[in-house]
């Protein structure tokens, strides 16, 4: 349970840094890229917190981000629509990690506000269940 608390704290810290950048309406290329980088580490912190939550609280051991998102739906941490958005978010995160493409960066940045909201709700729900 201590590890879960650490993971949730890490996710909350990461989301605080992401929040600073997702509200910028006309970002410079540097701000956009920084926001995408923060999205990457925020996503990592959140899915790993959810993985730990599922293991510690629900007794479910899942190893992949998509599996964790699907299992989060099964234990009512995410709705069906949020799960669909979450799976789309994983695809975007995977693309940011492996390639850099200007058009893709613009597309992902445009999605960051909704991704931030989803990640925030996900972590808040885990916090609430503890």
Short summary:
83% of the residues lie in helices and 0% in strands. It is mostly helical and 130 residues long.
Give an overview of the whole structure:
The chain is mainly α and 130 residues long. The protein has one domain (2-129): Nucleotidyltransferases  domain 2 (Four Helix Bundle (Hemerythrin (Met), subunit A)), CATH 1.20.120.330. It contains five helices and no strands. The longest helix has 30 residues, at 29-58. The chain is globular, with a radius of gyration of 14 Å. This is HI0074 family nucleotidyltransferase substrate-binding subunit. Pfam families: NTase_sub_bind.
Q: What's the CATH C level?
A: Mainly Alpha
CATH fold topology = Four Helix Bundle (Hemerythrin (Met), subunit A)
Largest sheet: none
Number of strands: 0
SSE-based structural type: mainly alpha
Shape: globular
Shape-level CATH architecture:
Up-down Bundle
Average pLDDT confidence is 95
Structural Rg: 14 Å
Number of helices: 5
**How many structural domains are formed by the residues?**
1
Unreliable segments of 5+ consecutive residues:
none
**What is the CATH H-level superfamily?**
Nucleotidyltransferases  domain 2
Distance between the termini: 10 Å
Query: What is the H/E string?
Result: HHHHH
Q: Which strand-content bin applies to the residues?
A: under 5%
Percent helix range? over 70%
Protein traits:
globular
Topology (SSEs and partners):
Blueprint (H helix, E strand, L loop, with lengths): L1 H21 L6 H30 L6 H10 L5 H19 L3 H28 L1
Helix pairs in contact: 1-2, 1-5, 2-3, 2-4, 2-5, 3-4, 4-5
